[in-house]
Design brief:
With 485 residues, this protein is α/β, with parallel strands linked by helices. It has 3 domains: 85 residues, Udp-n-acetylmuramoylalanyl-d-glutamate--2,6- Diaminopimelate Ligase, Chain: A, domain 1 (3-Layer(aba) Sandwich); 228 residues, UDP-N-acetylmuramoyl-L-alanine:D-glutamate ligase (3-Layer(aba) Sandwich); 152 residues, Mur ligase, C-terminal domain (Protein-Tyrosine Phosphatase, Chain A, Alpha-Beta Complex), CATH 3.90.190.20. It is 32% helix and 22% strand. The chain has a 10-stranded mixed β-sheet with strand order 9-8-10-7-11-12-13-14-15-16, with helices on both faces. Strands 17-18-22-19-20-21 form a 6-stranded mixed β-sheet, with helices on both faces. A 4-stranded parallel β-sheet has the order 3-4-5-6. A hairpin with a 2-residue loop joins strand 23 and strand 24. Helix 10 packs antiparallel against helix 11, helix 12 runs parallel beside helix 13 and helix 13 crosses helix 14.
Length: 485
């Protein structure tokens, strides 16, 4: 999508060389021929230090906020940081105005909701895309991202590509970090979705109050046009009461009373492969079968459905499409063994997510419930004993192992988890993650369910400064084959 530099920057500067531009880059390593390199202050260094590298990569133009240069390809705009969101949107011709845009925030469920939105759209023959933890693009063929929510410079480029590909709706995860760091500046969402708020990222935010305040930034007037809020979550009810934009509520039926626009569930019955339940809403009542594990997935699906209802999609069509939903990779994903037990991989890495996963699987478990998990190093240490306590409370047997230990000692992390457990708890420590998983599986009996929590979709394990290739889903598939021989 080439852009004429003189036309584009006419409102911002008169000293612009005439050239054809292709995309805007913040990272000099990603600059290609015809690109614009934006040289502004980063966390550790200023982008001006990389101008030469950008030109070596083929940059046609550099924008920066200070300095004096004789090279007319370097344009100095003192107010660059302030005007950059509008400038980037102008460059890409405001793709957010063309697309339906859904932003999803909350501690747990963001990836699942964006995927369910895209699966439902596919059933309705509407082209969608996702941006989030698992990558961006078509939900079954994603391009990896370094962060859950990219910088707005990268988001605008992705959205522009979606427009060219005739995508109609993009569902994007919006992390608390991204909101505080203004990574979605200049982007207005048609719908903002709130899932839940539980302990996470306190190493960054410092307190639950600050963490909640970060999430609430997505629900301001001018940032979003409508809010879809889980009112079965304690903070969700508070957010709904103070929200600046129209609220559409979802959750358990008893929590949705009093809302004019809502989607609620009740009469939940667990089946061997999912749930049967009743839906009630301002648009009618339905019986629904969901082929998914985990009651929290009921709420995730309702959030996806309601976000689409806000955009005008028909509830009856959405209910019919739900019958064909599939688990998101690494989110309550089932692996059935010939020995008649089941392993489930889930990304649960917070106390609340672990508790919900175990409580949900208990409903589908006819014998013992196993839990294999660890905690990440160089992250919130306070949750470790709490997760140990919850694993003991909701599982029959626990195997504590490594997650991403990073610079910390694996055994020290495992022992901090075990410190939350009683002396007579049924647990053991196996620091090698693959060995821990295999130990649980060779010990499992018919009717058992083994939850392997924490890694989910991830394909690396961080040990020290090394990023080792580690695909837990591939390992489980391998074990299903090996143990069936």
């Amino acid at each position: 999508m080439p852009v004429n530099s003189v036309t584009w920057l006419a409102n911002y500067s008169t000293a612009v060389p005439q050239c054809e531009l292709h995309s805007i880059q913040l990272d000099s390593r990603k600059v290609g021929p015809g690109d614009v390199f934006v040289a502004i202050a980063g966390v550790a260094q200023h982008g001006k230090d990389y101008i030469d590298r950008a030109f070596a990569g083929g940059a046609a133009l550099v924008l920066t906020d200070s300095g004096a240069y004789t090279d007319n390809r370097i344009v100095v705009l003192p107010e660059l940081v302030q005007i950059l969101p509008a400038l980037v949107a102008d460059f890409y011709q405001h793709p957010a105005r063309v697309l339906q845009l859904v932003g999803v925030t909350g501690t747990n469920g963001k990836s699942s909701i964006t995927f369910f939105i895209n699966q439902l759209l596919e059933q309705l023959t509407v082209k969608g895309a996702v941006i989030g933890t698992l990558g961006y693009g078509y939900y079954q063929q994603l391009t990896a991202l370094p962060n859950t929510t990219p910088h707005f410079v990268d988001i605008q480029r992705i959205l522009a590509a979606c427009v060219r590909q005739q995508v109609q709706l993009v569902a994007m995860e919006v992390s608390s970090h991204a909101l505080v760091q203004q990574r979605v500046a200049g982007i207005q969402f048609d719908v903002a979705v709130f899932t839940n708020l539980t302990r996470d990222h306190l190493d960054y935010h410092g307190s639950m109050a600050e963490y909640a305040a970060a999430k609430a930034l997505l629900f301001r007037a001018g940032v979003s046009r409508a809010a879809v809020i889980n009112v079965s979550d304690d903070y969700g009810r508070k957010l709904a009461a103070q929200c600046e934009v129209p609220v559409w509520a979802y959750g358990k039926a008893e929590h949705c009373h009093g809302f004019a626009r809502y989607l609620a569930y009740s009469d939940v019955v667990a089946t061997t492969n999912g749930y049967q339940l009743q839906l009630s809403s301002h648009a009618g009542d339905y019986s629904l079968h969901l082929p998914l594990l985990g009651e929290f997935n009921i709420q995730n699906v309702l959030a996806a459905m309601l976000a689409l209802m806000v955009q005008g999609y028909d509830l009856t069509s959405l209910v019919n499409a739900c019958n064909r939903l599939q688990a998101v990779p690494g989110r309550m994903e089932q692996f059935v063994f010939a020995q008649q037990f089941t392993a489930v991989i889930d990304y649960a890495h917070t106390p609340d997510a672990l508790q919900q996963a175990l409580q949900s699987l208990r409903l589908h478990c006819t014998s013992r419930l196993w839990c294999v998990f660890g905690c990440g190093g160089d992250r919130d240490r306070g949750k470790r004993p709490l997760m140990g306590q919850l694993a003991e409370l909701f599982a029959d047997h626990v195997i504590i192992t490594a997650d991403n230990p990073r610079s910390e000692d694996v055994m020290a992390i495992c022992e901090e988890i075990a410190a939350g457990m009683s002396p007579d708890a049924s647990y053991q420590i196996e620091p090698d993650r693959q060995a821990a998983i295999k130990l649980a599986l060779v010990s499992a009996q018919p009717g058992d369910v083994v939850l392997v929590a924490g890694k989910g979709h991830e394909t690396i394990q961080i040990i020290g400064s090394e990023q080792r290739q580690y695909d837990e889903r591939a390992y489980l598939r391998q074990l299903v084959t090996e143990m069936s021989l």
